[in-house]
Specification:
- Keywords: ATP-binding, Nucleotide-binding, Nucleotidyltransferase, Transferase.
- InterPro entries: PAPS_reduct_dom, Rossmann-like_a/b/a_fold, SO4_adenylTrfase_ssu, Sulfate_adenylyltrnsfr_sub2.
- Belongs to the PAPS reductase family. CysD subfamily.
- With about 325 residues, the protein is of the alpha/beta class.
- Helix content is about 35%, strand content about 15%.
- A 6-stranded mixed beta sheet has the order 3-2-1-4-6-5, sandwiched between helices. The chain has a 4-stranded antiparallel beta sheet with strand order 8-7-9-10, with no helix packed on it.
Length: about 325
């Protein structure tokens, strides 16, 4: 590297930077290593995923085709590239899932060449281990098939896409969340995670739920989708759909039991902010056709996606926490 010669002026001393001035002066090297908000979140999530690979023997990723699980899978693939993903995928199929999500799930599994384990709620209903609920929703019925799949496959770490901004029970959960031999979550057993140090130790029969997206928000997820050009199922964008109004939410008609008498279907332009069982996931009126449109729409919302569109979280004030204590996601 060439250095320009310093020309001394008679009667003066050459200017010398003090350490403080050198530190304050911007440098090309420091600018090149500066991370923005999404870079920090990505690095943190990849660190968590790699910690799971280092501490556990049989990890699995919960994958439904929803936006959070898609982003988490993208991060996991990125964490080990160019090597293949060392984790299997697990999906609890309620039998009332949106067909678009199942198609997306299967296409993603085929593209990545990973193993998919499917736990079917319908199988449990057919053989009498579970019963249909009077309201038709099957989201709360996922717990038993989930726990059976975890124990049957001896998964010791289960990565989920839960975020702390979604719901107050999830806001209390650590990144590494210990579950007992019955799959139950006890808030009092949460471990400190100082300096991003994660403790995955657990007794035989226990397992750990891991949430790499804990510190992300819904806007962060969509901005990351935009930056990484991640493809999502079409129902996350505005489209015409036949829906009916129930309890202030636009639900999709289906075999699960809707609409009831007095609930009139109509065609509206809607999209889904979160996607679960058709019986409890509401659509929102929207004209957001692109990721950029969705980012603007979500940034202006005063309700989280679960608070706005998930009927299963309205069953009681502590509906989510009660389900988590039983072993739910």
């Amino acid at each position: 590297m060439r250095v320009a010669p310093v020309t001394a002026v008679v009667g003066t001393s050459p200017a010398v930077e003090t350490p403080a001035e050198a530190t304050a002066r911007p440098s090309a090297g420091r600018a090149a290593y500066r991370l923005d908000h999404l870079d920090h979140l990505e690095a943190e999530a990849i660190h968590v995923v790699r910690e799971v690979a280092g501490q556990f023997e049989r990890p699995v990723i919960l994958f439904s085709g929803g936006k959070d699980s898609v982003v988490m899978l993208h991060l996991a693939v990125k964490a080990f590239a160019p090597s293949p993903l060392p984790f299997a995928l697990l999906h609890v199929d309620t039998g009332h899932n949106f067909p678009e999500l199942l198609d997306y799930r299967d296409a993603t599994v085929a593209r990545l060449g990973v193993r998919l384990v499917v736990a079917s709620v319908q199988d449990y209903i057919d053989d009498g281990r579970l019963r249909e609920r009077p309201d038709g929703t099957r989201n709360p019925l996922q717990t038993v098939p989930l726990l059976d799949a975890i124990s049957g496959n001896r998964f010791d770490a289960v990565l989920g896409g839960g975020r702390r901004d979604e719901e107050k029970a999830r806001a209390k959960e650590r990144v590494f969340s210990i579950r007992d031999a019955f799959g139950a979550w006890d808030p009092r057993r949460q471990r400190p995670e100082l300096w991003d140090l994660y403790n995955g130790r657990h007794a035989p029969g226990e397992h750990v739920r891991v949430f790499p997206l804990s510190n992300w928000t819904e806007v962060d997820v969509w901005r990351y989708v935009e930056r990484e050009r991640i493809e999502l199922p079409d129902l996350y964008y505005a489209h015409e759909r036949e829906v009916f109004l129930r309890d202030g939410m636009w639900l999709t008609a289906g075999e699960w039991g809707g609409p009831r008498a007095g609930e009139t279907p109509e065609v509206r332009t809607v999209r889904y902010r979160t996607v679960g069982d058709m019986s409890c996931t509401g659509a929102v009126d929207s004209d957001a056709l692109t990721v950029a449109d969705v980012v603007l729409e979500v940034a202006g919302s005063r309700l989280t996606e679960r608070g706005a569109t998930r009927a299963d979280d309205r069953l009681s004030e502590a509906a989510m926490e009660d389900r988590k204590k039983e072993g739910y996601f």
